[in-house]
Amino acid sequence: MAHWRDCIAHDLNNILTPVYGIAQLLAMQFPDIDENIKQQLDLLKISAQRGSEIVNQVLSFARGEEGDLAPLAMKHLITEIRSFALKTFPKSLDIAAEVPNDLWMINADATQLYQVLMNLLVNARDAMPSGGQLGLSAINLHFGSILKNEKLK
Q: Are 97 and 137 in contact (CB under 8 A)?
């Protein structure tokens, strides 16, 4: 089973690598292309990179490894996800983000968190086939004090 898992992951990465490479080459070969096309090529590169990261994450999970925890700026991640959603979701959705400038850094696996948040957004999108408002927000919160208060009840 492990052999098949590794073969499938290798094949998926072999598919994603040229997608990323061609998007990068096209941007370099045609530096004067329309700004909208440049953005679409950037989206293609980002998506190929994310796909490769997810493949590697699935492999790590299957091997019983932990994720790559590192300091992460949630404001940047939420901004990136909103930007991706604005470019790919139906225009009938109004997608807003409310993130304070002083939002704390967290220690997390960026790929896992991106995947979780994107899954939530896709579920929200699918729940609003006629359009609507989709909001992203974040706040600073200490869980230690919340957990202590829960134990007192």
A: yes
